[in-house]
């Protein structure tokens, strides 16, 4: 059971990381040169937290790869799509089109079929 929680934790940490990086990217000046952008990255706490979240997700992911089949963890990671849509709606107030919802539903149906098969 703990392995499944760690797998979900890895997926969740990836979503958290993407969210933090999106929030942090709003404060970085991308009109400057490469050095200015790099300094913006290392001086923005939410970007640093986002990278740390990705690092934790990667550690969990490697552990999960040792416990499950690669094909299994890869398909389970598709849950990220649904979680990211939820974040997009509730945190960033993005509008999600019907076609994107349908696409997401097809992905999730495919994942369920694959996991059951």
From TrEMBL:
SUPFAM superfamilies recorded: Multidrug resistance efflux transporter EmrE (SSF103481)
Keywords linked to the UniProt accession: Cell membrane, Membrane, Transmembrane, Transmembrane helix
Q: What Gene3D superfamilies does the record tag this protein with? A: 1.10.3730.20
Would you tell me the Gene Ontology cellular component terms?
Answer: plasma membrane
Whether Transmembrane helix counts among this entry's keywords is: yes
GO MF, one annotated term:
transmembrane transporter activity
User: InterPro entries attached here?
Assistant: EmrE-like (IPR037185), Small_drug/metabolite_transptr (IPR000390)
Q: Where are the transmembrane segments?
A: 33-63, 70-92, 98-115
- Indicate the principal place this protein occupies in or around the cell: membrane
The name this protein goes by in its record: Uncharacterized protein
Q: Provide the organism lineage as a comma list.
A: Bacteria, Bacillati, Bacillota, Negativicutes, Acetonemataceae
């Amino acid at each position: 059971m703990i392995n499944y929680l760690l797998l979900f934790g890895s997926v969740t940490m990836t979503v958290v990381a993407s969210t933090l990086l999106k929030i942090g990217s709003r404060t970085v000046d991308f009109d400057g040169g490469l050095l200015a952008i790099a300094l913006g990255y290392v001086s923005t706490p939410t970007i640093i937290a986002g990278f740390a979240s990705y690092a934790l997700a990667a550690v969990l992911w490697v552990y999960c790869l040792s416990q499950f089949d690669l094909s299994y963890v890869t398909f389970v990671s598709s849950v990220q799509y649904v979680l990211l849509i939820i974040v997009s709606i509730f945190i960033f107030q993005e509008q999600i089109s019907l076609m994107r919802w349908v696409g997401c539903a097809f992905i999730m149906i495919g994942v369920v079929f694959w996991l059951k098969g």
